[in-house]
Predict the structure.
Amino acid sequence: MKRKNLLIALILIISISLLGCTNKNTKEVASTPLKPLTIGVMPDLDSIPFIIAEHNGYFKEEGIAVTIEHFKSAMDRDTALQTKKLDGAISDMLAVVFFNDNDFDVKITSKTEGSFKLIAGKDSGISNINQVEGKSIGISKNTIIEYLTDRIMEISNVDVNAPEKVAIPKIPTRLEMLNNGKLDMATLPEPLASLAVTAGGSIINSSDELGVNPGIMLFTSDAIDSKTNEIKALYRAYNKAVNYLKEEKIENYIDFVIEEAGFPKNIKDTLTLPNYTEASMPSEKELEEVLTWLKSKELTTNDYTLKELSTDKFVK
């Protein structure tokens, strides 16, 4: 009987010891600090949920330190990605194709909800798409801007080469040249497109009207492999920011958004936000249309699928 009681006591002691070790290990894993993330954004509406997440402390609530780097041109943003100064960025499907064509492995992790508009300058004499023959149009070459410009022309049965394309990579410079009459037209992201309208420009067409949106969020494969929990935390904070934007009046956050995004202060009365939704994946159709355009310009020969170029593990 004594031996039996002794055996039971030993089993209990061992069980308690093992439980204590398990709890300790679990606690250590749970309390492991998340690594910092650095993401690149452009001066457009896609950046606003991230700015809200930072300002309202949602990243901190999720235990993640996120540095938001602001860029004026896609070229500068892409260089920062390739030199490993960024883990991820607001970008577009065209950039993802170019990166993978050149053996720089990045993946689409969600779609974004920006808006782009083709704007005619106040003194351009252009009131509709059929008047663009021989007129100058400011774009950034081989980017989402040129892609959307061509799509607008194609859908309107206008030759994509009818206007004279002028490569102006930096978005604020493109806006300034349009407003100063040095360009007849420009394709611009919101909110700078609305600023051009305020200065006397007129909207010829937009990505919203076309139902075209190749904008995405991407991360490098290195970041996806080594910072999985960090990216999940970033998206939880992003979704909190989206819900805040749905519920809060714009006047309660517009001032700090303008300041932190580097938007011109005079957009305050013209800024209209999209209906932001929680993070989700883009469609296969969107990628197919981008690939068709890229092949037509001999910019790629690859037949990628969305599965090859993306991962949905962060937005499930």
